[in-house]
Protein backbone atom coordinates (compact mmCIF):
# COMPACT_ATOMS: atom_id res chain seq x y z
CA UNK A 1 0.00 0.00 0.00
CA UNK A 2 1.15 3.58 -0.61
CA UNK A 3 0.73 6.49 1.77
CA UNK A 4 -2.92 6.86 0.80
CA UNK A 5 -3.83 3.24 1.50
CA UNK A 6 -4.16 2.33 -2.19
CA UNK A 7 -2.34 -0.76 -3.44
CA UNK A 8 -1.03 -0.65 -7.01
CA UNK A 9 -1.02 -3.84 -9.11
CA UNK A 10 -1.04 -4.56 -12.80
CA UNK A 11 -4.20 -6.67 -12.86
CA UNK A 12 -7.12 -7.33 -10.53
CA UNK A 13 -9.14 -10.49 -11.19
CA UNK A 14 -12.63 -10.34 -9.70
CA UNK A 15 -14.09 -13.80 -9.15
CA UNK A 16 -12.47 -17.19 -8.62
CA UNK A 17 -14.79 -19.50 -10.50
CA UNK A 18 -13.80 -21.31 -13.69
CA UNK A 19 -13.13 -18.14 -15.67
CA UNK A 20 -11.26 -16.32 -12.91
CA UNK A 21 -8.99 -19.25 -12.12
CA UNK A 22 -8.27 -19.75 -15.80
CA UNK A 23 -7.28 -16.10 -16.11
CA UNK A 24 -5.09 -16.30 -12.99
CA UNK A 25 -3.34 -19.40 -14.36
CA UNK A 26 -2.52 -17.63 -17.62
CA UNK A 27 -1.35 -14.51 -15.79
CA UNK A 28 1.15 -16.70 -13.95
CA UNK A 29 2.23 -18.31 -17.22
CA UNK A 30 3.13 -14.88 -18.61
CA UNK A 31 5.46 -14.28 -15.66
CA UNK A 32 3.22 -12.14 -13.48
CA UNK A 33 3.34 -12.98 -9.78
CA UNK A 34 0.32 -13.14 -7.47
CA UNK A 35 0.33 -10.42 -4.80
CA UNK A 36 3.13 -8.51 -6.53
CA UNK A 37 1.65 -8.09 -10.02
CA UNK A 38 -1.93 -9.30 -9.73
CA UNK A 39 -4.53 -10.26 -7.15
CA UNK A 40 -7.55 -12.54 -7.34
CA UNK A 41 -10.53 -11.42 -5.25
CA UNK A 42 -13.45 -13.73 -4.52
CA UNK A 43 -16.51 -12.98 -2.43
CA UNK A 44 -17.36 -16.63 -1.76
CA UNK A 45 -16.38 -18.17 1.59
CA UNK A 46 -14.37 -21.03 0.07
CA UNK A 47 -13.08 -22.35 -3.28
CA UNK A 48 -15.54 -23.68 -5.82
CA UNK A 49 -17.08 -20.65 -7.49
CA UNK A 50 -20.84 -20.97 -7.92
CA UNK A 51 -20.52 -24.76 -7.78
CA UNK A 52 -20.18 -24.65 -3.98
CA UNK A 53 -23.78 -23.43 -3.74
CA UNK A 54 -25.35 -26.13 -5.89
CA UNK A 55 -27.99 -28.38 -4.37
CA UNK A 56 -26.90 -31.77 -2.96
CA UNK A 57 -28.89 -33.83 -5.45
CA UNK A 58 -26.88 -32.38 -8.35
CA UNK A 59 -24.25 -35.08 -8.30
CA UNK A 60 -21.12 -34.90 -10.40
CA UNK A 61 -22.51 -37.56 -12.73
CA UNK A 62 -25.42 -35.24 -13.62
CA UNK A 63 -23.19 -32.30 -14.55
CA UNK A 64 -23.21 -31.55 -18.26
CA UNK A 65 -19.91 -30.62 -19.84
CA UNK A 66 -17.70 -29.72 -16.90
CA UNK A 67 -14.39 -28.87 -18.57
CA UNK A 68 -11.09 -29.17 -16.73
CA UNK A 69 -9.17 -26.03 -15.82
CA UNK A 70 -5.98 -25.41 -17.82
CA UNK A 71 -2.94 -27.28 -16.59
CA UNK A 72 -4.68 -29.74 -14.28
CA UNK A 73 -7.21 -32.42 -15.14
CA UNK A 74 -10.08 -33.47 -12.90
CA UNK A 75 -9.74 -37.25 -12.70
CA UNK A 76 -11.17 -40.07 -10.64
CA UNK A 77 -14.19 -38.14 -9.39
CA UNK A 78 -17.03 -40.22 -7.94
CA UNK A 79 -20.11 -39.51 -10.10
CA UNK A 80 -22.36 -40.15 -7.09
CA UNK A 81 -20.82 -37.36 -4.98
CA UNK A 82 -22.44 -33.91 -4.96
CA UNK A 83 -20.93 -31.68 -7.64
CA UNK A 84 -20.41 -28.97 -5.00
CA UNK A 85 -17.99 -31.26 -3.17
CA UNK A 86 -16.21 -32.63 -6.22
CA UNK A 87 -15.68 -29.33 -8.02
CA UNK A 88 -15.12 -27.38 -4.82
CA UNK A 89 -12.32 -29.74 -3.90
CA UNK A 90 -10.88 -29.61 -7.41
CA UNK A 91 -10.82 -25.80 -7.39
CA UNK A 92 -9.18 -25.77 -3.95
CA UNK A 93 -6.46 -28.15 -5.16
CA UNK A 94 -6.01 -26.03 -8.29
CA UNK A 95 -5.53 -22.80 -6.33
CA UNK A 96 -2.91 -24.52 -4.18
CA UNK A 97 -1.13 -26.25 -7.06
CA UNK A 98 -0.54 -22.98 -8.91
CA UNK A 99 -0.17 -20.81 -5.80
CA UNK A 100 -2.88 -18.38 -6.89
CA UNK A 101 -3.35 -16.89 -3.39
CA UNK A 102 -7.02 -16.01 -3.78
CA UNK A 103 -8.28 -13.38 -1.33
CA UNK A 104 -11.62 -14.35 0.22
CA UNK A 105 -14.15 -13.44 1.25
CA UNK A 106 -13.71 -10.04 -0.42
CA UNK A 107 -16.57 -7.94 -1.78
CA UNK A 108 -15.88 -5.61 -4.71
CA UNK A 109 -18.27 -2.69 -4.34
CA UNK A 110 -17.23 -0.47 -7.26
CA UNK A 111 -14.75 -0.06 -10.08
CA UNK A 112 -14.27 3.53 -11.21
CA UNK A 113 -11.77 5.76 -12.97
CA UNK A 114 -8.70 6.28 -10.83
CA UNK A 115 -5.57 8.38 -11.12
CA UNK A 116 -2.84 8.12 -13.73
CA UNK A 117 -4.93 6.06 -16.12
CA UNK A 118 -5.54 3.32 -13.57
CA UNK A 119 -8.79 1.74 -12.46
CA UNK A 120 -9.80 2.28 -8.84
CA UNK A 121 -11.12 -1.04 -7.48
CA UNK A 122 -12.94 -0.49 -4.18
CA UNK A 123 -13.24 -3.60 -2.03
CA UNK A 124 -13.98 -4.73 1.50
CA UNK A 125 -10.24 -5.20 2.10
CA UNK A 126 -9.16 -1.83 0.70
CA UNK A 127 -8.61 -0.07 -2.61
CA UNK A 128 -6.55 -1.34 -5.54
CA UNK A 129 -5.19 0.79 -8.38
CA UNK A 130 -5.08 -1.53 -11.41
CA UNK A 131 -3.82 -1.09 -14.92
CA UNK A 132 -6.34 -3.70 -16.08
CA UNK A 133 -9.25 -5.65 -14.66
CA UNK A 134 -10.53 -9.13 -15.47
CA UNK A 135 -14.14 -9.45 -14.40
CA UNK A 136 -15.15 -13.07 -13.79
CA UNK A 137 -18.16 -12.63 -11.52
CA UNK A 138 -20.56 -14.91 -13.39
CA UNK A 139 -24.29 -14.83 -12.73
CA UNK A 140 -25.07 -16.87 -9.59
CA UNK A 141 -25.41 -13.79 -7.39
CA UNK A 142 -28.13 -12.28 -9.57
CA UNK A 143 -31.06 -14.71 -9.80
CA UNK A 144 -33.80 -13.38 -12.05
CA UNK A 145 -37.28 -13.22 -10.49
CA UNK A 146 -40.04 -12.32 -12.98
CA UNK A 147 -42.89 -10.20 -11.67
CA UNK A 148 -46.52 -11.26 -12.05
CA UNK A 149 -49.76 -9.76 -10.87
CA UNK A 150 -50.71 -11.06 -7.43
CA UNK A 151 -47.26 -12.44 -6.64
CA UNK A 152 -47.18 -10.80 -3.22
CA UNK A 153 -50.52 -12.40 -2.27
CA UNK A 154 -49.38 -16.02 -2.61
CA UNK A 155 -49.67 -17.76 0.75
CA UNK A 156 -47.33 -20.61 -0.10
CA UNK A 157 -43.56 -20.63 -0.56
CA UNK A 158 -41.70 -19.05 -3.47
CA UNK A 159 -38.05 -19.81 -4.14
CA UNK A 160 -35.53 -19.60 -6.95
CA UNK A 161 -33.12 -22.17 -8.36
CA UNK A 162 -30.39 -20.37 -6.40
CA UNK A 163 -32.18 -21.50 -3.21
CA UNK A 164 -33.15 -24.99 -4.36
CA UNK A 165 -32.49 -27.38 -1.44
CA UNK A 166 -33.12 -30.68 -3.23
CA UNK A 167 -36.32 -32.66 -3.83
CA UNK A 168 -36.94 -33.76 -0.24
CA UNK A 169 -38.19 -30.30 0.74
CA UNK A 170 -41.13 -30.71 -1.66
CA UNK A 171 -42.44 -34.06 -0.40
CA UNK A 172 -46.24 -34.10 -0.38
CA UNK A 173 -46.46 -30.57 -1.83
CA UNK A 174 -48.22 -29.24 -4.90
CA UNK A 175 -45.43 -27.57 -6.86
CA UNK A 176 -45.43 -25.23 -9.86
CA UNK A 177 -42.05 -25.13 -11.62
CA UNK A 178 -41.50 -22.08 -13.83
CA UNK A 179 -38.82 -22.18 -16.52
CA UNK A 180 -37.88 -24.20 -19.57
CA UNK A 181 -34.13 -24.53 -19.13
CA UNK A 182 -31.95 -27.38 -17.95
CA UNK A 183 -32.34 -26.49 -14.26
CA UNK A 184 -36.12 -26.34 -14.52
CA UNK A 185 -36.41 -29.76 -16.09
CA UNK A 186 -33.92 -31.29 -13.63
CA UNK A 187 -35.81 -29.84 -10.67
CA UNK A 188 -39.14 -30.97 -12.05
CA UNK A 189 -38.06 -34.55 -12.67
CA UNK A 190 -36.64 -34.83 -9.15
CA UNK A 191 -39.57 -33.17 -7.42
CA UNK A 192 -42.16 -35.23 -9.30
CA UNK A 193 -40.95 -38.36 -7.54
CA UNK A 194 -41.92 -37.02 -4.08
CA UNK A 195 -44.47 -34.24 -4.63
CA UNK A 196 -48.24 -34.56 -4.41
CA UNK A 197 -48.52 -32.89 -7.82
CA UNK A 198 -46.31 -30.92 -10.21
CA UNK A 199 -47.12 -28.40 -12.91
CA UNK A 200 -44.59 -27.13 -15.45
CA UNK A 201 -45.05 -23.72 -17.07
CA UNK A 202 -42.78 -21.97 -19.57
CA UNK A 203 -42.97 -18.83 -21.70
CA UNK A 204 -42.04 -20.72 -24.85
CA UNK A 205 -42.49 -24.26 -26.06
CA UNK A 206 -39.48 -26.33 -24.97
CA UNK A 207 -37.08 -27.24 -27.75
CA UNK A 208 -35.46 -30.66 -27.42
CA UNK A 209 -32.18 -31.58 -29.06
CA UNK A 210 -31.64 -35.11 -30.31
CA UNK A 211 -28.35 -36.59 -31.35
CA UNK A 212 -24.79 -35.50 -30.59
CA UNK A 213 -23.87 -31.91 -29.94
CA UNK A 214 -20.54 -31.53 -31.66
CA UNK A 215 -18.04 -28.78 -32.38
CA UNK A 216 -19.99 -27.39 -35.34
CA UNK A 217 -23.20 -27.10 -33.34
CA UNK A 218 -21.31 -25.60 -30.42
CA UNK A 219 -19.68 -22.93 -32.57
CA UNK A 220 -23.05 -22.00 -34.07
CA UNK A 221 -24.64 -21.63 -30.63
CA UNK A 222 -21.77 -19.53 -29.30
CA UNK A 223 -21.95 -17.31 -32.39
CA UNK A 224 -25.57 -16.43 -31.62
CA UNK A 225 -24.69 -15.37 -28.08
CA UNK A 226 -21.57 -13.55 -29.26
CA UNK A 227 -23.58 -11.50 -31.72
CA UNK A 228 -25.76 -10.19 -28.91
CA UNK A 229 -22.89 -9.03 -26.71
CA UNK A 230 -21.11 -7.46 -29.67
CA UNK A 231 -24.24 -5.35 -30.21
CA UNK A 232 -24.40 -4.38 -26.54
CA UNK A 233 -27.46 -6.49 -25.70
CA UNK A 234 -27.73 -8.45 -22.45
CA UNK A 235 -26.24 -11.89 -23.05
CA UNK A 236 -28.26 -15.05 -23.25
CA UNK A 237 -26.77 -18.25 -21.94
CA UNK A 238 -25.26 -20.64 -24.47
CA UNK A 239 -27.69 -23.29 -23.18
CA UNK A 240 -30.66 -21.11 -24.13
CA UNK A 241 -29.80 -21.46 -27.81
CA UNK A 242 -28.81 -25.14 -27.82
CA UNK A 243 -32.09 -26.70 -26.70
CA UNK A 244 -32.63 -29.37 -24.06
CA UNK A 245 -30.75 -32.65 -24.53
CA UNK A 246 -33.19 -35.50 -25.11
CA UNK A 247 -31.70 -38.25 -22.95
CA UNK A 248 -33.33 -41.37 -21.49
CA UNK A 249 -34.45 -39.59 -18.30
CA UNK A 250 -36.12 -36.80 -20.28
CA UNK A 251 -37.81 -39.30 -22.59
CA UNK A 252 -39.22 -41.18 -19.60
CA UNK A 253 -40.44 -37.96 -18.00
CA UNK A 254 -42.19 -36.94 -21.22
CA UNK A 255 -43.81 -40.34 -21.56
CA UNK A 256 -45.09 -40.23 -17.97
CA UNK A 257 -46.53 -36.73 -18.34
CA UNK A 258 -44.11 -35.04 -15.93
CA UNK A 259 -42.83 -32.83 -18.74
CA UNK A 260 -46.25 -31.90 -20.08
CA UNK A 261 -45.86 -28.16 -20.35
CA UNK A 262 -48.44 -25.42 -19.86
CA UNK A 263 -48.10 -21.87 -21.21
CA UNK A 264 -47.12 -19.15 -18.77
CA UNK A 265 -49.86 -18.25 -16.31
CA UNK A 266 -51.28 -14.71 -16.28
CA UNK A 267 -51.40 -14.07 -12.55
CA UNK A 268 -50.71 -15.52 -9.15
CA UNK A 269 -53.46 -16.03 -6.61
CA UNK A 270 -53.24 -16.58 -2.84
CA UNK A 271 -53.56 -20.33 -3.42
CA UNK A 272 -51.89 -20.92 -6.78
CA UNK A 273 -51.73 -19.62 -10.34
CA UNK A 274 -54.38 -18.69 -12.90
CA UNK A 275 -54.79 -18.08 -16.62
CA UNK A 276 -57.11 -15.60 -18.31
CA UNK A 277 -58.99 -18.47 -19.98
CA UNK A 278 -60.30 -19.54 -16.54
CA UNK A 279 -57.87 -22.33 -15.84
CA UNK A 280 -56.35 -22.47 -12.34
CA UNK A 281 -53.80 -24.64 -10.53
CA UNK A 282 -53.60 -24.87 -6.76
CA UNK A 283 -50.06 -24.82 -5.36
CA UNK A 284 -48.13 -24.91 -2.13
CA UNK A 285 -44.82 -23.92 -3.76
CA UNK A 286 -43.76 -21.91 -6.80
CA UNK A 287 -40.20 -22.68 -7.87
CA UNK A 288 -38.74 -20.06 -10.22
CA UNK A 289 -36.15 -21.75 -12.46
CA UNK A 290 -35.93 -18.55 -14.45
CA UNK A 291 -32.22 -18.08 -14.80
CA UNK A 292 -29.71 -15.45 -13.81
CA UNK A 293 -28.32 -12.15 -14.99
CA UNK A 294 -24.68 -11.06 -15.18
CA UNK A 295 -23.34 -9.79 -11.84
CA UNK A 296 -21.74 -6.59 -13.11
CA UNK A 297 -23.31 -3.81 -11.02
CA UNK A 298 -19.92 -2.96 -9.51
CA UNK A 299 -18.79 -1.86 -12.99
CA UNK A 300 -21.57 0.75 -13.24
CA UNK A 301 -19.32 3.77 -12.44
CA UNK A 302 -17.34 3.08 -15.64
CA UNK A 303 -20.49 3.55 -17.77
CA UNK A 304 -19.81 0.53 -19.95
CA UNK A 305 -23.41 -0.36 -20.73
CA UNK A 306 -24.88 0.29 -24.17
CA UNK A 307 -28.42 1.56 -24.85
CA UNK A 308 -29.48 -2.06 -25.33
CA UNK A 309 -28.74 -2.78 -21.67
CA UNK A 310 -25.62 -4.92 -21.98
CA UNK A 311 -21.89 -4.30 -22.19
CA UNK A 312 -20.61 -4.45 -25.76
CA UNK A 313 -17.69 -6.88 -25.86
CA UNK A 314 -15.19 -7.71 -28.61
CA UNK A 315 -13.68 -11.05 -27.66
CA UNK A 316 -13.39 -10.42 -23.93
CA UNK A 317 -12.60 -6.69 -24.07
CA UNK A 318 -15.22 -4.11 -23.15
CA UNK A 319 -15.63 -1.90 -26.20
CA UNK A 320 -15.91 1.25 -24.08
CA UNK A 321 -12.77 0.56 -22.00
CA UNK A 322 -9.89 -1.58 -23.22
CA UNK A 323 -8.61 -2.02 -19.66
CA UNK A 324 -11.68 -4.08 -18.72
CA UNK A 325 -12.14 -7.68 -19.82
CA UNK A 326 -15.20 -9.79 -19.11
CA UNK A 327 -14.68 -13.55 -18.94
CA UNK A 328 -17.49 -16.00 -18.29
CA UNK A 329 -19.79 -13.38 -19.86
CA UNK A 330 -22.04 -14.17 -22.80
CA UNK A 331 -20.31 -16.55 -25.22
CA UNK A 332 -17.67 -17.53 -22.64
CA UNK A 333 -20.22 -18.55 -19.99
CA UNK A 334 -19.68 -22.28 -20.58
CA UNK A 335 -16.85 -24.05 -18.76
CA UNK A 336 -14.75 -24.57 -21.90
CA UNK A 337 -15.56 -21.04 -23.05
CA UNK A 338 -14.42 -19.64 -19.73
CA UNK A 339 -11.05 -21.36 -20.09
CA UNK A 340 -10.51 -19.96 -23.56
CA UNK A 341 -11.68 -16.52 -22.48
CA UNK A 342 -9.20 -16.46 -19.60
CA UNK A 343 -6.33 -17.15 -21.99
CA UNK A 344 -7.56 -14.60 -24.54
CA UNK A 345 -8.05 -11.87 -21.95
CA UNK A 346 -4.56 -12.33 -20.53
CA UNK A 347 -3.01 -12.22 -24.01
CA UNK A 348 -4.72 -8.94 -24.81
CA UNK A 349 -3.95 -7.44 -21.40
CA UNK A 350 -0.31 -8.38 -21.92
CA UNK A 351 -0.28 -6.31 -25.10
CA UNK A 352 -1.93 -3.43 -23.24
CA UNK A 353 0.64 -3.51 -20.44
CA UNK A 354 3.54 -3.56 -22.91
CA UNK A 355 2.06 -0.73 -24.95
CA UNK A 356 1.35 1.51 -21.97
CA UNK A 357 4.37 1.34 -19.65
CA UNK A 358 3.77 2.04 -16.00
CA UNK A 359 4.67 5.58 -14.82
CA UNK A 360 7.70 5.60 -12.55
CA UNK A 361 5.75 7.14 -9.67
CA UNK A 362 2.81 4.73 -9.85
CA UNK A 363 4.10 2.18 -7.32
Description:
The protein is of the alpha/beta class. Helices cover 23% and strands 22% of the residues. Helix 1 (18-29) links the parallel strand 1 and strand 2. Helix 1 crosses helix 6. The model has no long low-confidence stretch (mean pLDDT 88).
SSE layout:
Blueprint: E1 6-14, H1 18-29, E2 38-41, H2 83-97, E3 108-113, E4 119-123, E5 126-135, E6 157-160, E7 174-178, H3 182-191, E8 197-202, E9 208-209, H4 215-230, E10 244-245, H5 248-256, E11 261-263, E12 267-269, E13 272-274, E14 280-282, E15 285-288, E16 313-314, E17 317-318, E18 321-326, H6 335-355
Parallel strand pairs: 1-2, 1-5, 5-18, 6-15, 7-8, 7-15, 8-11, 9-10
Antiparallel strand pairs: 3-4, 4-5, 12-13, 13-14, 16-17, 17-18
Helix pairs in contact: 1-6
